[in-house]
Amino acid sequence: MAIRYAVGLPTVGQFGDVNFLTDLAVAAEQHGWDGVHVWDHVLFHDRDWPVTSATVAAAAIAARTSRVRIIMTMTLPRRQAQDVAQDAAAIGELSGGRLTLLTILGSMDEEFTEFGLDPSPRARGRALDERLERMGELWSQWNVPRPPIWCGGLWPHRAGLRRAARYDGAMPIFENQRLRNVDPGDFAAAAAYVRERATGEPDLVLEGATGPATAAAQVAPYAAAGLTWWVEALGWWRGDRPAAAARVTQGPPAA
After folding, report:
1. So what's the pLDDT on residue 144?
2. Rounded-to-integer distance, Cα 253 and Cα 251, Å
3. Global pTM?
4. Does residue 99 sit in helix, strand or coil?
5. Nearest to 245 by CA among 39, 10, 27
6. Residue 19: other Cβ atoms inside 10 A
7. Distance between CA atoms of 227 and 220, rounded to whole angstroms?
8. CB neighbourhood size of 115 (10 A)
């Protein structure tokens, strides 16, 4: 399976600006990227940072692009199934079927506790499964095509990737991932775990950072382990907004 390349767009801090994110997505399409991936938060560790809506950003990107796949993260346990199902159906229609949902448990307890929700991993996992099932029922009732669904999971914990094997793709996450390159052996183990349990050919997704001159060599070990999507993670830890825009215009290895 050929590798495809997306740019990863935070929705917080200096990146918490839907107009800027949409402009980056348009530039990504123009410079050969295959997709754009948007985060999902309602608050962040630094409470002074702006936080913009993943669904609004995804809709704006859908309206201004024609080719790139839109990978919209949803912290599903803190959302209502009917709202996500409706928004996904609308963005799917607006984009001409270019939406993929990346469903996750969420990385911040505060996004649950501050809104009266149970932050425990067990409660979140149960809620995520219930919402995925309910969304499938609603799309069927509405006669709406189900978008591809990927699931995230912190490796070496298994639950998230077991869930992913029941759907269309997996995005394994690793400790301190933004501070170091993921060991290709760790990614290979996570990928094998998903493939052994999947009934079809799931997408296998990894987030990381490359330089334009070394991107192909950096991605190659993960490709050998079954990678199908590379997400070029952009954010404040790599530089400011102009630095992110510059990396987008440099294009992916396949461009």
Report:
1. 96
2. 7
3. 0.96
4. strand
5. 27
6. 10
7. 9
8. 10
Q: For the chain, what percent of residues have pLDDT higher than 90?
A: 91
Domain count, the chain: 1
pLDDT of 179 strictly over 90 = no
Tokens representing 19 are 């107009």
Give the separation between CA 161 and CA 150, rounded to whole angstroms: 10
The predicted-structure confidence for 206-255, as pLDDT tens digits, reads as follows 999 998 888 889 999 999 999 999 999 999 999 999 999 999 999 998 64
Sort 213 into a burial class: Cβ within 10 Å, 0-12 / 13-18 / 19+: exposed
Cα 212 to chain centroid, rounded: 22
Rounded mean pLDDT of 5-12? 97
Mean pLDDT throughout 171-199? 93
Strand pairing category for 69-75 and 149-154: unpaired
Q: Check whether the bond before 156 is cis (ω within 30° of 0).
A: yes
The CATH number given to whatever domain includes residue 175 is 3.20.20.30
CA 122 to chain centre: 22
* Residue 255, domain member (yes or no): no
Residue-range definition of the domain harbouring residue 24: 4-250
pLDDT at position 86: 98
Domain assignment present for 75: yes
CB-based contacts of 205, cutoff 8 Å, min separation 6: 102, 150, 169, 170, 171, 172, 227, 228, 229, 230, 231
Is residue 172's pLDDT more than 90?
yes
3 state SS of 82: helix
DSSP 34: -
Q: Hey, what are 216's tokens?
A: 């192909």
* Distance, CA of 89 to CA of 85 (rounded, Å): 6
Judge whether 179 lies within some domain: yes
> Judging by beta carbons within 10 Å of its beta carbon (0-12, 13-18, 19+), is residue 153 exposed, middle or buried?
buried
